[in-house]
Structure formats: C-alpha cells, structure tokens
C-alpha cells in the first residue's frame, strides 16, 4: 500500500491482499491476485450492511473488460479521494511469510485493481476483482487466505501487527453473494480492514487503511462502498 506512514505498516497492509498482491496500474488487468485503502471507523469491522437472504444464480466469469468496468471510480468513492497507480508487488500473507504467494499458487484468469488515496495521502482505498476458472478454485484461494491471516499477531518489517478475523458478513450484505468475510488489522502506524467477497468465479477484495491519527468518521463509508462495488460486479455478470 501507499499510505504516508512508516514502511513497515505499508508492507503489513500490502501483505493482506488476499489474492497475493501482484497488481496493475489504474485498473488494468494482470495475471495474479491484492487489496486495501480507506480506514473503517476505529479500524473495526465495517457495519451497516443491510441483510440479504437470497443468492443469484451462477453466471460464469467476467472478462477483463467487464471486470475493469465494474471497478469503483473516484467519483463513486468520493471524499476527495483520487485514483493512484496500483502497486505491482507480490507479497506472501503475513501469517505464512515463507509460503508462495497466493498468485503463485492460484493464478487468476483475470485480475484488475484500482487504488485511491486521500488528499493528505494518509488514507487509501483499494478494490481488486479476480476471476478464476471455477468456484472450487475460488474456495481454495479463500481458504488459503484465511490460513494466511489466522495467526492473530505477527511481525512485519520489524513492526508488530494484530490481525482480528474473519468476521462473517455473508448474511449482512444486501446484494447476493456466495461468501463475504472481513479482517481488522492494527499496528502502531496503521489501522486497516480487509473485506473479501466471493461471487461465482469472482473474488472481490476491498481494503481500507489509514494512519491512526486520521479521523475515520470523515472518510467514505466502507459498508457503502462494498455494497456498491459488489452490486457493480453482480450487474456485470448478468
């Protein structure tokens, strides 16, 4: 991530990219999975997700063009956030630093990403959409991601990082999804959350991060952005 806080915190959040943190620039697809951005209120799991009890039928995978078009835009994010160049690093997950990255283990067929930064540079929002060959592969990616975020406390770049989660969000979204989970990440230099959503062959990863000094009540609402972002993906699948 590119948050204006110490480098160790940047590495910690970059490592949270559930799909392995190998990205592109400005919403352009690449061949590997990542995530992050704006901070949720008090770095807690985002709330305010209206419930949904239905699930839409499977419609297959998104093409690169459709996935790119489904990404959030700066106008939709609001709050003075502007689009920035996406990171192209590839980093193991924080609780499995010696394992291959998820992108190496499960290369997606399509991967697009977009990143946004606040005017101060102290807060960042990211969305990533990945398409896989089938739903079984997506389930394996999610399971590996859960394992790579399961240690509770770890050290990244010399900085202690606390990871809480996953928190189940599937039933809290008002849009049809197969699975949704969230993690909260805290360090002395960063408060962040990671939200992953599975829909058919797609994995959508949202990240919200900010320096602890940032007043998160003045940032765009994570729940609103997740619901809107997933709704765009669902619309693209029709």
DSSP E strands, number: 8
Report the order of strands and helices: HHHEHEEHEEEEEH
Structural class: alpha+beta
Largest sheet features: 8 strands, antiparallel
Q: What is the name of the CATH superfamily?
A: PknH-like extracellular domain
Distance between the termini: 32 Å
Overall helicity: 10-25%
What's the number of structural domains?
A: 1
In angstroms, what is the radius of gyration? 16 Å
Question: Which CATH-level-2 architecture?
Answer: 3-Layer(aba) Sandwich
State the strand order across the main sheet. Answer: 1-2-3-8-7-6-5-4
What topology emerges from the helices and strands here?
Layout: H1 7-14, H2 64-70, H3 74-77, E1 82-84, H4 102-105, E2 110-117, E3 123-131, H5 135-148, E4 153-156, E5 159-168, E6 179-186, E7 191-199, E8 202-210, H6 222-237
Helix pairs in contact: 2-6
Give your account of this protein's structure:
The protein is α+β, with helices and mostly antiparallel strands and 238 residues long. The protein has a single domain, classed as PknH-like extracellular domain (Protein Transport Mog1p, Chain A). Helix content is 22%, strand content 25%. The chain is built from six helices and eight strands, in the order H-H-H-E-H-E-E-H-E-E-E-E-E-H. The relative contact order is 0.26.
